[in-house]
């Protein structure tokens, strides 16, 4: 009863502050601050930057967890992080890197770049965009709260049941995973819907589907995958929540449940998930190759086709994560063949990139170095992928370091390299400053060499029989030397990341504003001013073909031809409701984790109240007058 | 610019839709959910009927959802058909996979 009373008092207190009834001057003063501006922003560029910075933060957190694990594995019989601590580290490393680093970094880039590339002034649902970010933010925070309160999740990022049920994982650890991911996942689904509708409905005049830049195309397919892949995860987490919190028996085989059901649901989500994170990477690379080769992307249509085909096949291969479950030779063969089929569209892409560079006028800034490093790295990852797709071989590789090496080659060599390339490439559009090329080169070489030193030897660790997710190994079985090389490589990657952080800080501190089109770019985002005004385009541009801005530059025009006269621009106004909604769910989720039903229900009720507030919110945005646009132009 | 001008005309389109239709299907969906719970909690029908009946309720709910709240009936578009077909395909493959590979 006491907690209930305290929570009610707190709730009323905050409600009073936010509605301005308690002290109106306080809220007026708060509204003028920069923090309020960012908290309530519905501007896609600001939300993108927040996604990106949150992603970088969790990338560092996940990287530290990885370094701790590599430190533990430096020598046999080490006792730095053993048992449960090591399990927590490996679980949170996987969960953080996939859900809280890769996804937000991708969403950050999509948010900033995609509306600019299609010539839109904002995304289709700006409010939903803000809500998606804040749900992700508080979901990620909730999952990581486990480190401080009661133990982090320790059942692996796949959280396989039996192990993840109360009997084998007592304490709140796995509850943090279940509720944190549920909240973050809701945000992800919203963003997916938002991006899809934006790309389909908000393209400027002349921007037909087959004139969109490759990054926009891959964002479109990724959004489709998000919409169809997140629901199985939501259901799986809901069932696991029922089992853990309310004593249901969906997964407990003793009570007639099915442990394989979790694996099916998780991987029906989990496999499309890896395409969700890797397809935008392909898009980033395509844009970069074409820009720095000064050539149209080779085989544009086949690229679009290959992307769609990968998205389509991505839903029919999930059993290749479950070959050793014992589903029978027929199932295993069907899914093995489907898996190998994916190599064909991926191969089309690799050859298209190579042919884009062939005969091009190549330059090698840091972004292009990442892109070039990506091709061989990703191809190695894809090759081991084909090896793993053969069930008889998979029985040998299963649960060994060979698998670890494989997916790090595709996830780092594919996604992370592309995200870093995208960071260097789009940094001037995101922040209005340039990143240093000199520091960038150090970052690239240290990270690239460190990456291969870390993960190439791990193939052999796996073949020599070292199982994954195990915190120690025996001396004198030939594993020490390889593990030391691997740890040394991880340290190089760490140093590379520190240099990147230093590079970011230097760029934020520098006063020099970047040029509007520093790379001699091809797509519409380079046709905007730097820093990009909040309405993006004073007049929406007209698009005449693929590589719209390049075509205009070739025709001798400095700017895009406008598709409309200078008129008033309708823009959405900011809202603090998404932040409140996410806090309400955060409190509710934490209440359920702490098994305090009062707080859980109160959080959900507060969420209902915020939804009610949104339903009767009659704010239809505001107009930017043509005069303001002209004044601004005259000033610059 | 076409998008902004169409968004101005949309409110009139919404007004032509009756409120009753939404309320009726909303109530119907709640009743169908309650009916599904009742089927499981109380022995109103033979056990063998429970699953087919619940599946039937689910199909009705999906159709109500798609037609009244997601405006599938409003105007024909290739996108709707494409995405619904893809969704059905993914759902069928996943469900068949889970049922036939236990």
From TrEMBL, chain A:
Write down the InterPro entries for this protein, in alphabetical order: Cyt_c_oxase-like_su1_dom (IPR023616), Cyt_c_oxase-like_su1_sf (IPR036927), Cyt_C_Oxase_1 (IPR000883), Cyt_c_Oxase_su1_BS (IPR023615), Cyt_c_oxidase_su1_bac (IPR014241)
Q: What is its main location?
A: membrane
Q: Which GO terms describe its cellular component?
A: plasma membrane
UniProt EC number: 7.1.1.9
Query: Is the Electron transport keyword given for this protein?
Result: yes
State the compartments where it is located. Answer: Cell membrane
Q: Which GO terms describe its biological process?
A: electron transport coupled proton transport; oxidative phosphorylation; respiratory electron transport chain
Question: In its keyword annotation, does this UniProt entry include Transmembrane?
Answer: yes
Per UniProt, what is one GO molecular function of this protein? cytochrome-c oxidase activity
Its lineage reads: Bacteria, Bacillati, Bacillota, Bacilli, Bacillales
**Could you tell me what this protein is called?**
Cytochrome c oxidase subunit 1
Transmembrane residue ranges: 6-27, 48-69, 89-113, 125-149, 176-202, 214-242, 265-285, 297-321, 333-355, 367-389, 401-427, 439-461, 481-502, 577-593, 599-616
Native species: Baia soyae
Q: Gene3D superfamilies in the record, alphabetically?
A: 1.10.287.70, Cytochrome c oxidase-like, subunit I domain
TrEMBL record, chain B:
The UniProt keyword set, sorted, is: Cell membrane, Membrane, Transmembrane, Transmembrane helix
Keyword set includes DNA-binding? no
What are the transmembrane regions?
23-41, 47-67, 79-101
Q: Name one GO cellular component term.
A: plasma membrane
Q: Where in the cell is it found?
A: Cell membrane
Q: Molecular function (GO) terms listed?
A: cytochrome bo3 ubiquinol oxidase activity; proton transmembrane transporter activity
Q: Which GO terms describe its biological process?
A: aerobic electron transport chain; electron transport coupled proton transport
Membrane topology summary: Multi-pass membrane protein
Instruction: Give the similarity note.
Output: Belongs to the cytochrome c oxidase bacterial subunit 4 family.
What this protein is called in its record is Cytochrome c oxidase subunit 4/cytochrome o ubiquinol oxidase operon protein cyoD
């Amino acid at each position: 009863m006491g907690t209930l009373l305290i929570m009610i008092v707190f709730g009323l207190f905050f409600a009073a502050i936010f509605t301005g009834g308690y002290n109106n001057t306080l809220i007026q003063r708060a509204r003028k601050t920069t923090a309020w501006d960012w908290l309530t922003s519905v501007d896609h560029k600001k939300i993108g930057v927040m996604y990106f910075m949150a992603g970088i933060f969790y990338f560092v957190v996940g990287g530290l967890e990885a370094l701790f694990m590599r430190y533990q594995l430096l020598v046999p019989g080490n006792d730095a992080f053993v048992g449960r601590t090591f399990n927590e580290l490996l679980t949170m490393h996987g969960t953080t890197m996939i859900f809280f680093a890769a996804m937000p970094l991708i969403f950050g880039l999509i948010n900033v770049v995609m509306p600019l590339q299609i010539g839109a002034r904002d995304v289709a649902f700006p409010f939903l965009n803000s809500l998606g970010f804040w749900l992700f933010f508080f979901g990620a925070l909730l999952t990581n709260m486990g480190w401080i309160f009661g133990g982090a999740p320790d059942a692996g990022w796949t959280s396989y049941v039996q192990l993840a049920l109360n009997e084998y994982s007592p304490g709140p650890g796995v509850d943090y995973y279940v509720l944190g991911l549920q909240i973050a996942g809701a945000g992800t689904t919203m963003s997916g819907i938002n991006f899809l509708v934006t790309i389909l409905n908000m393209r400027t005049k002349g921007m037909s589907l087959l004139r969109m830049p490759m990054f926009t195309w891959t964002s479109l397919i990724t959004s489709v995958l998000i919409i169809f892949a997140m629901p199985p995860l939501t259901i799986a987490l809901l069932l696991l929540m029922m089992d853990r919190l309310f004593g249901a028996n969906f997964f407990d085989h003793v009570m007639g449940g099915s442990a394989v059901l979790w694996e099916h649901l998780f991987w029906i989500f989990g496999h499309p998930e890896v395409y969700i994170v890797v397809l935008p990477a392909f898009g980033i690379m395509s844009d970069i190759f074409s820009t720095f080769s000064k050539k149209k992307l080779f085989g544009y249509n086949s690229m679009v086709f290959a992307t769609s085909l990968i998205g389509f096949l991505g839903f029919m291969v999930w059993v290749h994560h479950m070959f050793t479950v014992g589903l029978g030779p027929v199932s295993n063969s069907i899914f093995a063949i489907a898996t190998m089929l994916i190599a064909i569209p991926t191969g089309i892409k690799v050859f298209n990139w190579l042919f884009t560079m062939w005969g091009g006028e190549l330059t090698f800034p840091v972004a292009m170095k990442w892109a070039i490093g990506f091709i061989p790295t990703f191809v190695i990852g894809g090759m081991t992928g084909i090896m793993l797709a053969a069930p008889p071989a998979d029985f040998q590789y299963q649960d060994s370091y060979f698998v670890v090496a494989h997916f790090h080659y595709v996830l780092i060599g594919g996604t992370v390299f592309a995200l870093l390339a995208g960071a260097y490439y789009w940094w001037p559009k995101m922040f209005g400053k340039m990143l240093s090329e000199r520091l960038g080169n150090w970052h690239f070489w240290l990270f690239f060499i460190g990456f291969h030193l870390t993960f190439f030897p791990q193939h052999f660790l796996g073949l020599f029989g070292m199982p994954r997710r195990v915190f120690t190994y025996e001396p004198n079985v030939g594993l020490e030397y390889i593990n030391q090389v691997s740890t040394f490589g991880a340290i190089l990657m760490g140093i590379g990341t520190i240099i990147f952080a230093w590079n970011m800080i230097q760029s934020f501190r520098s006063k020099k504003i970047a040029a509007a089109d520093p790379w001699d770019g091809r797509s519409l985002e380079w046709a905007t001013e730097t820093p990009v005004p909040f309405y993006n385009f004073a007049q929406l541009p007209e698009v005449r073909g693929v590589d719209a801005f390049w075509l205009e530059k070739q025709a001798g025009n400095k700017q895009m031809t406008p598709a409309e006269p200078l008129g008033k621009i309708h823009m959405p106004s900011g809202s603090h409701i998404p932040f409140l909604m996410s806090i309400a769910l955060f409190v509710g989720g934490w209440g359920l984790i702490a098994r305090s039903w009062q707080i859980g229900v109160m959080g959900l009720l507060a969420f209902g109240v915020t939804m009610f507030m949104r339903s009767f919110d009659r704010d239809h945005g505001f107009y930017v007058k043509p005069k303001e646009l002209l004044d601004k132009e005259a000033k610059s | 610019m076409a998008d902004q001008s169409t968004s101005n005309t949309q409110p009139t389109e919404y007004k032509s839709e009756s409120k009753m239709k939404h309320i009726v299907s909303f109530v119907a969906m709640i009743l169908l959910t309650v009916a599904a719970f009742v089927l499981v909690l109380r022995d109103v029908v033979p056990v063998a009927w429970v699953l087919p009946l619940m599946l039937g309720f689910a199909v009705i709910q999906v159709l109500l959802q798609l037609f009244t709240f997601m405006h599938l009936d409003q105007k024909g578009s290739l996108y709707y058909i494409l995405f619904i077909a893809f969704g059905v395909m993914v759902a069928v493959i996943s469900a068949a996979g889970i049922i036939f590979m236990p």
